[in-house]
C-alpha cells in the first residue's frame, strides 16, 4: 500500500492520503527519518568501529592511501597454489654408474709389540741314530771318491772340495779361478758403459730437481694469481 | 561474368593476406609477445607518497601495470629514468620481482621461488658474483644469467617460469628479463627478498 504524503512541518500534524484516497491525520516526527538513519549510522560507527559494518567503511576509507607494496601486489598472478619442483636432472642421469675414487692409501697400523721370544732351547741330535739311515743315492754308476791330485791349483785354498768324481760325468768343483791364481784388478779408468750409466743417473737427478722447482714455483704463485683475479677459485654449487 | 570473377579474386586475395598476417603473428618471437608496454607510471607526490617496507631507497615511481600479470610476463621500461644505484625487491608471496634504479621502478616480472622444503630465505643480500653462462654442478642444469646472492648457492637466474613450478631455493626469471637484469646489475647491488 503506497502512502502519498506531504512533508509536514516538524512537530506538527499533517494530512496523510493513501493510494485509495482515504485521508487521515498523522503526527509528524520531531526528527525526520533520514536524520534518524544518519544518526544511527554514526552511532554504529562510533560503537563498533572494529567489528561491525563500520569496520568495512573505515577500511575502505583507509585504503585511499596505498603503499607501493599494494600497487605491486595488485599485479601479482596470485598466491602459488602448487609447488612442483623444477625437474633439473634427467631421469636417465641417475642410471649412469658413479665413478668412485680409488681408496686412499693408509699407512699400516703399527704392530703391537710382540712378547719377548721364549728362551732358546738347545737342540740335540742323536747323530748315532741318524747316521745309519743316511745313504746317498746316485742313479749313475758307483762313485769312486779319491783325493784330488795335488797339482790342481785352486784359488780358494781354504775351501778345496775333496770330492771329485772319476768318470762320473760331472764335477763338483770349487770354481775356476784365473790362471796363475791372481784376482784381476779393475782398471783405473771406468769403462764407457759405466760412464754412460753415471751420466744418465746424474741427468735423471737434474731433471727431477728442475721439475720439482717448477712445480714449487707454480704452487707459490697460486695465491698471487687469485689475488689478481687471474685465477678464480669457486665452489660451483647451485 | 566479369563482376563475379573480380569478387572471387578479391576474396582469394583477402584470404591470402589473412594467412600471411596470421603466420607473421604466430611466427613472432614468443618472448617479444610476452612483453607488456606500460601505459604510465604511478608517481609519488608529497601528498601521496609510496611507502615501501625494506626499500633501499624511497620509491619515487612505480610501473603502472594494468591488471595481474601472467606467468612468464615481464615489463621493462627505463625510458626517462635518471641514473642511480640499482636495487631489486623480490616479493615471494606475490611472486614478483621489481627492479629499481634509484627510486624509480624500471622492470617487473613474475618469478619462481623455492619450494616449501627448499625455501628461498628472506633478507637483504648483495650480489656476490655474476656468471652469464652458468652450469649448476649440483643440479646438473643450465642456469644462464646467474646473479649469486648467498654463499650456499641461492641465486637469481633465468628459468622457465610456469604456473605451479617451484625452484630449489633460487629465484627464477623469464630469460629476456634475466638478460636485461644481468646487463644492468653489478656485483654488490642489494637484493631485498620479502
From TrEMBL, chain B:
Entry's Gene Ontology BP terms: cell wall organization; peptidoglycan-protein cross-linking; regulation of cell shape
Pfam families the record matches: YkuD (PF03734)
Gene Ontology CC: one annotated term: extracellular region
PROSITE patterns: LD_TPASE
Domain L,D-TPase catalytic residue range list: 86-194
Superkingdom classification of source: Bacteria
This protein's pathway: Cell wall biogenesis; peptidoglycan biosynthesis
Species whose genome carries this gene: Sphingomonas horti
Name of the protein in its database record: L,D-transpeptidase family protein
Glycosyltransferase as UniProt keyword: no
Active site as annotated: 157, 170
Family that this chain belongs to: Belongs to the YkuD family.
Keyword list, A-Z: Cell shape, Cell wall biogenesis/degradation, Peptidoglycan synthesis, Transferase
GO molecular function, one term: peptidoglycan L,D-transpeptidase activity
Amino acid at each position: 500500500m503506497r502512502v502519498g504524503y506531504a512533508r509536514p512541518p516538524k512537530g506538527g500534524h499533517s494530512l496523510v492520503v493513501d493510494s485509495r484516497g482515504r485521508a487521515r491525520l498523522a503526527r509528524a516526527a520531531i526528527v525526520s527519518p533520514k536524520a534518524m538513519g544518519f544518526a544511527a549510522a554514526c552511532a554504529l560507527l562510533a560503537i563498533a568501529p572494529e567489528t561491525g559494518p563500520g569496520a568495512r567503511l573505515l577500511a575502505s576509507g583507509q585504503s585511499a592511501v596505498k603503499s607501493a607494496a599494494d600497487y605491486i601486489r595488485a599485479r601479482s598472478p596470485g598466491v602459488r597454489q602448487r609447488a612442483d619442483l623444477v625437474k633439473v636432472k634427467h631421469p636417465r642421469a641417475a642410471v649412469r654408474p658413479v665413478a668412485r675414487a680409488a681408496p686412499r692409501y693408509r699407512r699400516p697400523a703399527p704392530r703391537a709389540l710382540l712378547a719377548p721370544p721364549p728362551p732358546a732351547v738347545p737342540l740335540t741330535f742323536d747323530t748315532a741314530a741318524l747316521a745309519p739311515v743316511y745313504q746317498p743315492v746316485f742313479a749313475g754308476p758307483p762313485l769312486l771318491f779319491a783325493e784330488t791330485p795335488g797339482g790342481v791349483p785352486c784359488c780358494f785354498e781354504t775351501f778345496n772340495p775333496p770330492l771329485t768324481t772319476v768318470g762320473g760325468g760331472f764335477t763338483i768343483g770349487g770354481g775356476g779361478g784365473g790362471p796363475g791364481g791372481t784376482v784381476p784388478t779393475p782398471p783405473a779408468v771406468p769403462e764407457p758403459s759405466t760412464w754412460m750409466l753415471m751420466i744418465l743417473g746424474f741427468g735423471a737427478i737434474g731433471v727431477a730437481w728442475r721439475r720439482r722447482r717448477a712445480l714449487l714455483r707454480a704452487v707459490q704463485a697460486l695465491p698471487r694469481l687469485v689475488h689478481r683475479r687471474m685465477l678464480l677459485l669457486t665452489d660451483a654449487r647451485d | 561474368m566479369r563482376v563475379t570473377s573480380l569478387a572471387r579474386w578479391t576474396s582469394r586475395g583477402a584470404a591470402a593476406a589473412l594467412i600471411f598476417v596470421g603466420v607473421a603473428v604466430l611466427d613472432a618471437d614468443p618472448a617479444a609477445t610476452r612483453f607488456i608496454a606500460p601505459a604510465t607510471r604511478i608517481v609519488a607526490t608529497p601528498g601521496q607518497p609510496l611507502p615501501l617496507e625494506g626499500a633501499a631507497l624511497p620509491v619515487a615511481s612505480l610501473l603502472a601495470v594494468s591488471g595481474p600479470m601472467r606467468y612468464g610476463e615481464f615489463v621493462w621500461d627505463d625510458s626517462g629514468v635518471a641514473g642511480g644505484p640499482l636495487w631489486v625487491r623480490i616479493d615471494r608471496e606475490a611472486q614478483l620481482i621489481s627492479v629499481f634504479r634509484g627510486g624509480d621502478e624500471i622492470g617487473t616480472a613474475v618469478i619462481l621461488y623455492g619450494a616449501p622444503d627448499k625455501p628461498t630465505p628472506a633478507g637483504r643480500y648483495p650480489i656476490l658474483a655474476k656468471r652469464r653462462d652458468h652450469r649448476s654442478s649440483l643440479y646438473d642444469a643450465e642456469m644462464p644469467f646467474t646473479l649469486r646472492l648467498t654463499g650456499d648457492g641461492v641465486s637469481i637466474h633465468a628459468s622457465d617460469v610456469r604456473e605451479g613450478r617451484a625452484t630449489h631455493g633460487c629465484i627464477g626469471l623469464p630469460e629476456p628479463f634475466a638478460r636485461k637484469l644481468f646487463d644492468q646489475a653489478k656485483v654488490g647491488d642489494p637484493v631485498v627478498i620479502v
